[in-house]
Amino acid sequence: MNPIDRFNLEVSDNIRGLTNDTDLQALSRVWIREITRHKWAYNFAWLGRPAIQFPNDTWALQELIWQIRPDLIIETGIAHGGSLMFSASMLALLDLCDAIESGVTIDPKISQRKALGIDIDIRSHNRSAIEAHPMASRIQMIQGSSIAPEIIEQVMHIAKSYSRVLVCLDSNHTHDHVLAELEAYAPLTSIGSYCVVFDTIIEDMPDDMFPDRPWGPGNNPKTAVREFLVRHPEFEIDKSIQHKLLITVAPDGFLKRTT
Length: 259
Ligand SMILES: C[S@@+](CC[C@H](N)C(=O)[O-])C[C@H]1O[C@@H](n2cnc3c(N)ncnc32)[C@H](O)[C@@H]1O
What we know:
Elements: H1 3-20, H2 22-36, E1 44-46, E2 49-51, H3 55-68, E3 72-76, H4 82-102, E4 114-119, H5 124-131, E5 139-143, H6 149-159, E6 165-169, H7 175-185, E7 194-197, H8 221-231, E8 235-237, H9 239-245, E9 254-257
Parallel strand pairs: 3-4, 3-6, 4-5, 6-7
Antiparallel strand pairs: 1-2, 7-9, 8-9
Helix pairs in contact: 3-4, 7-8
Bound molecules: S-adenosylmethionine.
C-alpha cells in the first residue's frame, strides 16, 4: 500500500473509533454546553471580521469547499461578516489555484465566484467594514428576511448563473424558519455539494440554555432537518463530518445532496 493510502486508512480508522466512542461523544456535548455559557463562538475572527462559529466547523467547511470547488456560496445570517469573509477568501483561493493550474490569471473584479449573504439586519458598521474589505468584490449582500418570497426570488435569480453551489444556513434558528429556509435554498445545492445547517446542537442542549431566544430543544435547526429529510431523499446526513469533529455546532447538519 502506498503511504498516502496508508495514511487515509489510518484516518478512516480514527473516525470509526470516534463513531463508536459514545463516552467521548457525551463528553464533547458537555464541553460544548459549558463553553457555550461563555459565548465561546464569539471569540474568533476571519480576516479581521468576527465570525460567530466554532473553529472546528470552519475547518470542516474549508475541506468541503476544496472538495466541491463551488462557484457560489449562499449563506443566510451575516452578522459581523466573518463567515461570509471566510467563504469569499476560500473562493479567492480557488481562483488562485485555478489560475496556477491553467496558467491564466483571473481578475478578482470579474471572477464569477461569489459569496452571497442574506441577513434581515445588516448593521451599517458591519456593512461598511465588509464593503471596505479587500475581499468585497467577491461578496454580495441582500438585506431582508431569508424566507421572504421576494428575497428567495432574488437569490434564485442570482443562483441561475452558477453551477456549483454550496449553501449554509445560520440565521433565525427556530424550526419553522429553518424548515422554510431548507425548502427555499436546499434545492439550489448542486449534486455532490452540501447544505450545511448550523446550530442543530441546540436540540442536544438543556431546556434552560436559551432563555432569551425563541428556539430550544424541540424547536430548532435539527428538528427542521429531520422534517425536511422525510420529504427530501435527495439529501443525506454526512455523519462522518460530525464524528471526526466531535466539537461541532452542526451535528446532523452537514447535508450532502446525492441526487
Ligand atoms: C448567528 S448570526 C450569523 C453568524 C454568521 N453566520 C457568522 O458566522 O458570523 C445570525 C444572523 O441571522 C440574522 N437573522 C435573524 N433572523 C433572520 C431572518 N429572518 N432572515 C435573515 N437573517 C436573519 C441576524 O440578524 C444575525 O445577523
